[in-house]
Please model this.
Amino acid sequence: MTRRVTGYAAEVTVSDGQRFASLGGVAVQNRRLVLLWLRRQALRLANGHGLPLVAEPVRLSTGDVRPVRFHGSHAPEELRHWATHGPHQDHAIRALEAGFPALFTVSDPAVGLSLTLAGWRGRPAERWSPATNRS
Model:
């Protein structure tokens, strides 16, 4: 019997290479809302280090991730570029449509951290990993 998965999840994590921590996540009904939430988080982190953004046309009933302070890296520009560049968004939505995760990672070498935006089909507790998403 095949289990039908409904819904999508997204999460933003930070890692130092040995440990990781979740900055926040969301469970939503469809892949477009996953992408909308990930884009919002990328822009929040890039533009204001947690400062509020202007009102958006679509409001999600979910919270935003905790802010991150970047130290002398290009991470904010990379996040902004990912969130606003059409081909990156097209690639992410196609990955979600095909049942693969949408992943984007930026690094801050000044402090040895990497930040990952991830979206996948399933529930938040079903974090994406190669071992859990085999056909």
Remarks:
- The first strand starts at residue 8 and ends at 15.
- The chain has one domain: 8-121.
- Residues 83 and 92 are 10 Å apart (CA to CA).
